[in-house]
Write a structure and sequence with these properties.
heterodimer; A: mainly beta; five-stranded antiparallel β-sheet; 11 strands; globular; B: about 110 residues; mainly beta; seven-stranded mixed β-sheet
Chain lengths: ~110, ~110
């Protein structure tokens, strides 16, 4: 079993819809939870990160962490075609290295 | 503006050849990382460095080596390229003590024939 599980998709939604992307994990020691966005043939870029449980909002993006269920989510409101990308979750604890999910490929249909 | 660059962006080589991928960052970050990205596996850590002359093995280090002689550069060497090393390679850098924030380069696509 992988430490971090992420549905690879692909996921296609119409423009303006709310998108929900999710990851589950098995290591209860994880403390930091990140979401990276990766456009085609580009490097990943950090979108958001949260520490421990709770919600964090940044514009149209909301990151949610439920440590009791070992489940994290990224919500995108009013989705735009420019949001079409692969979204990778990542996690770490202490001074350890990032552990990435496999990524979910998202397409927003105009 | 500070940035992280990788070269070459594309590389085709033959089995058994030695290959070196370059990574250069102008963020003045102490931490640098090499990952490979493959379908179904996501990003996997190959090697990493927390400073000059410091190098450490990651999850998939066999067949790869790195050296850190200055802050800006962390070249990745494939000692004897194998077809299983066909992949997209990403370099990243970050600040010490802020592991959650890493800045990635644009990637190098390597094909080993």
């Amino acid at each position: 079993q992988k430490e971090v599980e992420q549905d690879p998709g692909p996921l296609s939604v119409p423009e303006g819809a709310i998108v929900s992307l999710n990851c589950t994990y098995s290591n209860s020691a994880f403390q930091y939870f990140m979401w990276y966005r990766q456009y085609s043939r580009k490097g990943p870029e950090l979108l958001m990160y949260t520490y421990s449980s709770g919600n964090k909002e940044d514009g149209r993006f909301t990151a949610q962490v439920d440590k009791s269920s070992k489940y994290i989510s990224l919500f995108i409101r009013d989705s735009q075609p420019s949001d079409s990308a692969t979204y990778l979750c990542a996690m770490l604890f202490g001074n350890e290295k990032l552990t990435f999910g496999t990524g979910t490929r998202l397409t927003i249909i105009p | 503006d500070a940035e992280i660059t990788q070269s070459p962006r594309h590389k085709i080589t033959e089995t058994g050849r030695q290959v070196t991928l370059a990574c250069h960052q102008t963020w003045n970050h102490n931490n640098m990382f090499w990952y490979r990205q493959d379908l179904g596996h996501g990003l996997r850590l190959i090697h990493y460095s927390y400073g000059v002359h410091d190098t450490n093995k990651g999850e998939v280090s066999d067949g790869y080596s790195v050296s850190r002689s200055n802050t800006e550069d962390l070249p990745l060497t494939l000692e004897s390229a194998a077809s299983s090393q066909t992949s997209v390679y990403f370099c990243a850098s970050g600040t010490s003590g802020v592991q959650e924030t890493q800045y990635f380069g644009p990637g190098t696509r390597l094909l080993v024939l």
